[in-house]
Amino acid sequence: MTVFAHPDDAELSCFGLLSKLRRQGWRVILVIVTRGENGANCAAWRRVGEATAAARHIDAEIVFGDFQDGYVTRSAELVSWMEELLDEYRPQLVISHFAGETSTAHQDHVAVAAAVRIAARRARWYPTLLLAEGIDNDSTFQPNWFVDITDEHATKMAVIRLHASQREKYYMQEDYLETRARKWSLNFPNPPDDPHRKGYWEAFVLVQHAS
Ligand SMILES: [Zn+2]
Q: In this predicted structure, what is the pLDDT of residue 136?
């Protein structure tokens, strides 16, 4: 289960991993806290349609929250809703934003990440929790968990392109996305001919690991 604030966050953060898990037979549920109605130049219905098309692309399920884009707070209401979702779906793995108070993240991301962490920590079966890299170059993001998504890169690009209403944003540009996906290969001391060198990666902070 992923829990992100807006309709394109999962696609930008961890869709390679989601596509990979889906191909391995995992059930994937995309939880989106708002409908992204404050995103530039677009009505909520359009963003909902884009996210739904992206989910359909890998045959994932999608759940929208009724929280207001731009005004999400770490409220008791948000934490309770997270707890209800966790109880209902019992995910083995939960993925959310990496967004601490000291990072440069969107305020909705900070609130959602905090609520997910509280709810996941309380869950009786203790799911694995990963926090995914955001769109900005955040110096406080120090990943400790990497996924080779080379085989999923084309799928990830395809679903990001489905978010046509966001096409003008800098972080939607293909060269930017390529650089982000490639840069983590520099973390591995592989010889130059190692295929991982040329690979695409997603990076996460592993917060808690299921036993
Ligand atoms: Zn967002």
A: 82
Q: Which residues surround ligand 1, an ion (CB under 5 A)?
A: 5-6, 9
- Own/partner pairs, 134-137, CB within 8 angstroms, 24+ separation: 134/13, 134/97, 134/98, 134/99, 134/103, 134/105, 134/109, 135/12, 135/13, 135/171, 136/104, 136/105, 136/171
CA angle 94, 154, 116 (to 5 degrees): 15
Which pLDDT value is given to residue 118?
A: 94
More confident residue, 85 or 186: 85
CATH number of 2-208: 3.40.50.10320
Please tell me the distance between residue 49's alpha carbon and the centre of ligand 1 in angstroms.
16
Tell me the domain boundaries of the chain: 2-208
Q: Is the pLDDT of residue 45 over 80?
A: no
